[in-house]
Design goal:
Order of helices and strands: EEEEEEHHHEHEHHEHEHHEH
Largest sheet: 5 strands, parallel
Number of helices: 10
Strand content: 15-25%
Number of strands: 11
Structural class: alpha/beta
Length: 270
């Protein structure tokens, strides 16, 4: 018999260990744990003993549960269909050093997101169109979604429109809408700077940025504007909050992939 004081380990090799259970007499009995078979992922433990000593039944394959949860999160993340499968693995890297550095920074941000979320560290991707800003931002989001974290992808004009709609309709208050943009673990704000650049726009964007800043929530901002023009558009109050806690500006100054591919096609046809 095994003494209770020795504790019980989680089973790593399903066929070589036994899971202890309490017998009616108060003694400890040993029997093989129940193992399920998943068509997709193979064997999975149907019973696990927690640190409290209670044996819990696992209703289905743990990997399937996590994939289902990740799929549900993706459905609420607002990531455009074109970018839902974007990962670091399918990003087209070249030998261009600035692009490699941008890629490494994005990948490191995803890998260390727990640390970033503790201080609210933000990223700003700025520069030319078609250079991979949205791909890398969505690769970060997709990685976090696979980990069970929440992310929201939204364009700046959608934020402004959603906030302004509350002024005409009584369905939601402005504060409730802003809280929806503050709630996710990560917010990706795309197409910043294509609006008019009015003071009203700055005020509404500030409410969202400042709300996340107060709650120590990271965000990624994407813009095609050069950094000087982006600073002018955002204003110092927003820009300073984005760069607080080690926030970084990443400049995507290389040629558009779309134009490169078009040139290749034209060259082949010529």
């Amino acid at each position: 018999m095994m003494e209770r004081s020795q504790g019980f380990e989680n089973i790593r090799d399903m066929g070589s260990r036994f899971l202890p259970f309490s017998a009616p007499s108060g003694q400890t009995s040993l029997r093989k744990p129940l193992v399920g078979e998943c068509d997709k992922h193979g064997p999975w433990m149907k019973e696990l003993r927690g640190e409290d000593g209670i044996v819990r039944v696992i209703p289905s394959c743990g990997k399937c549960i996590r994939e289902s949860r990740s799929g549900a999160l993706l459905g609420r993340a607002g990531i455009p269909l074109r970018f839902r499968e974007k990962t670091f693995e399918n990003f087209e890297l070249t030998s261009h050093i600035p692009q490699i550095n941008a890629f490494r920074m994005a990948k490191d941000y995803a890998a260390t997101f727990n640390e970033a979320s503790m201080v609210g560290k933000c990223l700003v991707f700025t520069g030319n169109t078609g250079t991979g800003k949205t791909h890398l931002a969505c690769a970060i989001a997709n990685e976090l979604l696979r980990q069970g974290k929440s992310a929201l992808f939204v364009r700046a004009y959608e934020v402004l429109r959603t906030i302004r709609d509350t002024w005409k309709s009584g369905e939601k208050t402005e504060l409730a809408v802003i809280r929806e943009f503050v709630a996710p673990d990560l917010l990706i704000l795309d197409e910043v700077g294509v609006q008019y650049g009015s003071e009203s726009e700055r005020i509404e964007l500030f409410k969202v940025v400042n709300g996340r800043y107060d709650e120590v929530k990271p965000m990624i901002m994407l813009s095609n504007l050069a950094i000087t023009r982006l600073l002018e558009y955002l204003g110092e109050r927003i820009y300073d909050r984005l760069l607080d806690a080690g926030g970084r500006v990443v400049t995507f100054d290389w040629k558009s992939w779309r134009s490169i591919n078009s040139e290749k096609i034209l060259g082949m046809e010529g």
